[in-house]
Write a structure and sequence with these properties.
The chain is of the alpha/beta class and 220 residues long. It has helices at residues 10-22, 33-42, 59-68, 84-93, 105-119, 152-162, 171-178, 188-200; strands at 2-6, 26-30, 47-51, 75-79, 97-100, 126-129, 132-135, 140-143, 146-147, 206-209, 213-216. Strand 3 (47-51), helix 3 (59-68) and strand 4 (75-79) form a beta-alpha-beta unit.
Length: 220
């Protein structure tokens, strides 16, 4: 899963970066509205954490421009504690949720997880495929109740597929959503991680759809 973090305060941005990366997200960052708008219009993100008080272009304007351009990624806005008008304006502009500063990192992570789930029509934090279970809260994977040890990249890939059960996902889409903008994006590495996952999961859990990509198999 890849997120866009937009925050101009360097201390808070560093804290958020650490928490989000430790939670397993690939991350792109911007510290002003102009760069944020460009990234949101040109890169694929599973969710955005957007501060409204940005230099150059304010966050509310950035959000409105994204929605006017047809960008539909979930957006969590960060607002001042007592600025109820910011919350209302943000929701009206197309935000999916808001969080008032100061906040606990655990709450931000929970809200981001919920936004990503809702974007795919999923309600539970436990994603299941037969006997395979992925807990989005703890980033743990179990198979028939037994833990499955995955690397961070293997977990991201499996999580992306499990958020889209039954859907065919191309290698290009996986590459866009698993790696930050400045990462060396070689789509051939996706095949490597798919191969590693297949060795750790039941046969045929991940199907190859020739010429299109990969799909998490739906158990009968």
């Amino acid at each position: 899963m890849k997120l866009l973090l937009v925050e101009d305060d360097p201390t808070l941005r560093s804290q958020l970066r650490t928490g989000l990366e430790e939670a397993g997200y690939a991350l792109d960052e911007a510290d002003n509205g102009r760069d944020a708008q460009h990234l949101g219009e040109t890169e694929a993100f599973d969710a955005v954490v957007l501060d409204l008080g940005l230099p150059v272009v304010d966050g509310l304007t950035v959000l409105k421009r994204w929605r006017e351009a047809g960008r539909t990624m979930p957006v969590l806005i960060l607002t001042a504690r007592d600025s109820w008008h910011e919350k209302v304006a943000g929701i009206d502009a197309g935000a999916d949720d808001y969080l008032a500063k100061p906040f606990h990192m655990e709450e931000l992570l929970a809200r981001v997880r919920a936004l990503i789930r809702r974007a795919q029509g999923l309600a539970s934090p436990l994603l299941k495929c037969g006997e395979l279970t992925l807990d989005t809260r703890s980033s743990r994977v179990t198979l028939d109740g037994q833990p499955v040890t995955l690397t961070s990249h293997e977990f991201r890939l499996l999580a992306y597929l499990m958020h889209r059960p039954g859907s065919v996902v191309s290698r290009t889409e996986l590459t866009e959503h698993l790696y930050a903008q400045d990462f060396d994006r070689d789509s051939n590495t996706i095949e490597v991680f798919i191969g590693r996952l297949r060795r750790k999961l039941p046969a045929d859990t991940i199907e190859t759809v020739r010429g299109m990509g990969y799909r998490l198999a739906t158990p009968p």
